[in-house]
Amino acid sequence: MKELITFLRQLSANNNREWFNAHKEQFLQLQARFHAFTEELIAEIAAFDPSVNGLTAKDCTYRIYRDVRFSDDKRPYKTHMGAFICPGGKKSGFAGYYFQVSTGGDEYPGAHMLATGDYCHSPEALRILREDIAYGEGDFEATLRQAAPGFRLDRDGALKRNPKGFPADAPYSEYLRLKAYCLCLVPDEEFVCAPHLAQRVAALFQTTKPFLDYINRGIAFAGAE
Asked: Does the first or last residue of the chain, that is N or C, have fewer Cβ atoms within 10 Å of its Cβ?
């Protein structure tokens, strides 16, 4: 991953079409390596989570080109590369396992990242998940304790009060106020560049499978209503 990180840092400093076109062959080679890594990671995850069996890198990876139509930021290229491995692929609507290589830093999008869950849930799925948490007698919290050290809930944008339909003293209110149900871990560059990365990433993701099963159960129930 070291060469990919170096390329992404260079792209961050030269985020324009002229530079990218001059280095496109290098990008395509690095993209092919990342896709091969993604295929390996899918196989490692499928060993403990058969719901992702049969996915390909194309089902899980994204284009380098940014959609700038509705953004004030007109830089044409992303400076990270990620894979979202979930049942049915990245467009299925289910939560999954996300791995990202970037330029390095402490926050998205510059951070290298492992994440389990999703950052965008439908209103129906949010309602179901919140009901499950409020009346589940701690089973959601139990999934958090199973995750490896370093994983933290994404609390960005959390509500200041409980959502409509939940009293102020509802059980597990700190979780009801979340707008996304996602566990995140920011590894250092040594981790990302060390050998056997797919196996080590999958081992960490395996500890978050109970959490993911909980989230996807709610998403599936919301979709069946």
From this structure: C
Furthest CA-CA distance within the chain: 59
Over residues 155-194, the pLDDT tens digits come to: 999 999 999 999 999 999 999 999 999 999 999 999 999 9
Q: How far is CA 40 from CA 11, 58, 167, in A?
A: 26, 13, 46
Which residue type sits at 92? S
Q: Which two tokens stand for residue 36?
A: 């091969």
In whole angstroms, give the CA distance from residue 185 to residue 94.
Answer: 20
Treating both helix axes as pointing N-terminal to C-terminal, what angle do 139-146 and 209-224 enclose, rounded to 10 degrees?
Answer: 140
CB 27 within 8 A of CB 7: yes
User: From start to end of the chain, where are the E strands?
Assistant: 81-85, 96-101, 113-118, 152-153, 181-185
pTM of the model: 0.95
Query: Which range of residues forms the domain containing residue 124?
Result: 2-224
- 3-state helix vs strand vs coil in the chain, percent to 5: 45, 10, 40
